[in-house]
């Protein structure tokens, strides 16, 4: 497995070098469809990959159902900027948010299974809500690709290779619709990324994020308690959280 | 060709609060009732894993599957209506108990003013106080006439509360005492008393103590677990049809409940309903259920949809203001609220109950003078403690970044240091706010979706500004260091959750020309068809609607018994 990764990685570097050397870069020209094949994903080196993995406890939940390795790494980097590790506690990376997102996109939420997806499709007012044809998993994949393209266009490097400030600026441009795209709504993608990040931070650990309930602990949220009859009339109380696993 | 079943006395369409109450009252008196419910059966045992914000609150586990049926929305007739493809502004319940399962349990009575809103407003402020296109009308029933039915609903559900000092006259006190008071509720009480207002505990369907109701149904006290709205109650402490009226109906042996049954038409001949046509969702089979009396008891949109698709009643025409089905759709104005940030205090915001809170009615109905105000009615102001779950609640002061390092720091800091005062603003009907059938979009069976035409009006904007200022004043008195008031209402936005308090469309009244049902919820145009629910509200008051829905359902049940005996129009 390691050998295979390395050989792919090797290919990637030379391919990237080729693109750089030959001066092929995607400009701001908006064309129909996502430009994908020319822009490489950054897979990163072996050491870097190891560092981003949560190696404390081997969790069999931490593998991918939908995203590619490269898409996963971009997701991990972007969600970490939305909720970074700092002196207050872990960030999205340590809490497994990217795994959470991958797993959700693979399931009914990614397929918009319980949304009305019937045609015809028309552009509407913002207050009428999402009216697109694409499912969330498609929006997410296209969004990651567009973010990668935009990073190459601005910095000649992929999203995981630029500085944190540069990453923040790219996310901000998506949030504020400053990126001109013909495929998806940049802010729509950003909002999906942000809301799924919050879900991954704070949903029950059964979904793959909020690892060891550290997301809850950080904000003094006690998770799933049977009740609060004893404390409801009292002053603020810090409690050790408990999860649905404790109900099994 | 549909399979035709033997005739029953009464068939009800949708088994939530309305259907459950009708079923229990009629079967107790010996009638045979068939209950058709589109969704699945539910039990308290299903909620063992219910403390799951993602599954229930964010992914809407208990709600109607929008891939099969939704509605379309436009702000006005110039705009193309488009489907509500995902949930936002309100949530449609599905399954046994309906929206009565996922509610919070706040159980108010409307004010005497509400039932006579048009005549009282004109009497006090003159004709010009009511804008030309505002279609408020009296309900065809007074508060005093409806009072015994409120009492009946409250005793069945075991409502916990204390008397509203500014409310209508009560024949009896609440069956159980008010819920526990947390420190923030005490702060609200003190602050509003300092401001010379009249605070009282929210009447709650989350039981404050163990209770046995007049039907002999015993339920346990609420544990303040903070998972009410959008969740089912694993303790049965929150009154819902599944733990109150449905078991009573079942016990009689006269209630035939059929889940997975999607009613598509009310069948009728020569001005009388003959039964309903439904699809068994497990087999796809079309079934005809004949009945002497048909009762529509689903949520607002489905009641209207079923009538219009069955071609019953006169569809409302906004151009002329004539017709009644779809008329006077109204909502709730909840945005004129305020949040306060407390530097040096922390609260147990994670704990609570759906109906735990304290409220004032000093700015509700006509409890205050409107002479110099450019709106009528008002709403209650409240501090509630329903449980701030972590995905949905990340309060930060206005203008703060919504992601990144600063967002993290602020949201972690403020989560237990923020208190909000909310408002339940009344919603007035307008000539151009209505429900009809969409010409383009269809449900899973090819039936047209309901189309909603609705927006906020100047009345709503003025009301929101007014209530937001009052909310801010209370927070200031409570000692908040920083206050954000939400004064600007903006256009109605179907993507942002506001309230599942949709009303109107099959409104009640004293005049068949301007209303669809009489005060027994009996259709003027078809005397053996009753339409029960918030569809009957000619406008929406400044309260949560379930108490009034329950009272009207008890009155409808009485009317159906009368009709079964003697026939004819009841009012």
UniProtKB/TrEMBL annotation, chain A:
InterPro entries: Gluconate_2DH_su3 (IPR027056), TAT_signal (IPR006311), TAT_signal_bac_arc (IPR019546). The chain crosses the membrane at residues 21-41. It holds the Pfam family Gluconate_2-dh3. Keywords: Membrane, Transmembrane, Transmembrane helix. It comes from the Bacteria. It comes from Lentibacillus populi. This is Oxidoreductase.
From TrEMBL, chain B:
Belongs to the GMC oxidoreductase family. Pfam families: GMC_oxred_C. This is GMC family oxidoreductase. GO terms for molecular function: oxidoreductase activity, acting on CH-OH group of donors. PANTHER family: LONG-CHAIN-ALCOHOL OXIDASE. The keyword Oxidoreductase applies. SUPFAM superfamilies: FAD-linked reductases, C-terminal domain, FAD/NAD(P)-binding domain. Residues 435-553 form the Glucose-methanol-choline oxidoreductase C-terminal domain. Residues 161-180 are annotated as: Disordered. The keyword Flavoprotein applies. It comes from the Bacteria. Signal peptide: none annotated. The lineage of its organism: Bacteria, Bacillati, Bacillota, Bacilli, Bacillales. InterPro entries: FAD/NAD-bd_sf, GMC_OxRtase_C. It comes from Lentibacillus populi.
